[in-house]
Design brief:
With 63 residues, the protein is mainly α. It has a domain of 36 residues. The chain contains one helix and no strands. The longest helix is centred in the middle third of the chain and has 13 residues. It comes from Mytilus galloprovincialis (Mediterranean mussel). Keywords: Membrane, Transmembrane. InterPro entries: Chitin_synth. It is a multi-pass membrane protein.
Length: 63
């Protein structure tokens, strides 16, 4: 994976560990905005939670 980030300010004042989240996906993942909101809401309400993940429902045969 290649991630390109253009930095103008390394420590923007509005970004903190309390309001910054990383969303990692495979290229073939489909999800709704509501699903992402539910995961973020769960992380915001529990400060002991370090990661959250949705349930995956495979539809193929694994070939």
């Amino acid at each position: 994976m290649i991630v390109r980030v253009n930095h103008t300010n390394v420590n923007p004042p509005h970004l903190t560990a309390e309001n910054t989240f990383i969303l990692a996906l495979d290229g073939d993942v489909d999800f709704t905005p509501k699903a992402v909101r539910l995961l973020v809401d769960k992380m915001v309400t529990d400060d002991q939670l370090g990661a959250a993940c949705g349930r995956i429902h495979p539809i193929g045969k694994g070939n």
